[in-house]
Specification:
With 121 residues, the protein is mainly β. It is built from no helices and 11 strands.
Length: 121
C-alpha cells in the first residue's frame, strides 16, 4: 500500500523557517501532481502549493514569495521550504499526491497524516 509520510513540523518564532518533508513509499514519478495543504480548527483545508511531475508549481497568494515547493525523485520525497513564517501560518500541514494507477490516467488521491506547524509571535 502506497503511503505518504510527513515530517519536519514544529514550533518556531515568527520570521523563522521550517522545511517540511513528504516521503512516499514508492517512486514519486508515479504521482502526476503533489502538493501541500493546511488546516486549522476554524477553517477548511486549504491549498498551500502544488508541483507537477514536470516541475510546474502553483502557490496560494498568502505564501507566494515565502514558501517553495520542490520534489526529489531520487529520494522519493517532496519538500516545502517555509521562510518568513507568520503566526497565521500555524496549522496542520498535509501532504497530498495524485497517484496515476493505469495508462488511461485513472488515479487515486493520497494524503499523509499531517504535521503540526506552530508559529509564535
Amino acid at each position: 500500500q502506497v503511503q505518504l509520510v510527513e515530517s519536519g513540523g514544529g514550533l518556531v518564532q515568527a520570521g523563522g523557517s521550517l522545511r517540511l518533508s513528504c516521503a512516499a513509499t514508492r517512486s514519486i514519478s508515479s504521482f502526476d501532481v503533489m502538493g501541500w495543504y493546511r488546516q486549522t480548527p476554524e477553517n477548511e483545508r486549504e491549498l498551500v502549493a502544488t508541483i507537477t511531475s514536470a516541475g510546474s508549481t502553483n502557490y496560494a497568494d498568502s505564501v507566494k514569495g515565502r514558501f517553495t515547493i520542490s520534489r526529489d525523485s531520487a529520494k522519493n520525497t517532496m519538500y516545502l521550504q517555509m521562510n518568513s513564517l507568520k503566526p497565521e501560518d500555524t496549522a496542520v500541514y498535509y501532504c497530498n499526491g495524485r497517484l496515476v494507477v493505469n495508462t488511461e490516467g485513472a488515479y487515486v488521491t493520497l494524503w499523509g497524516q499531517g504535521t503540526l506547524v506552530t508559529i509564535s509571535s
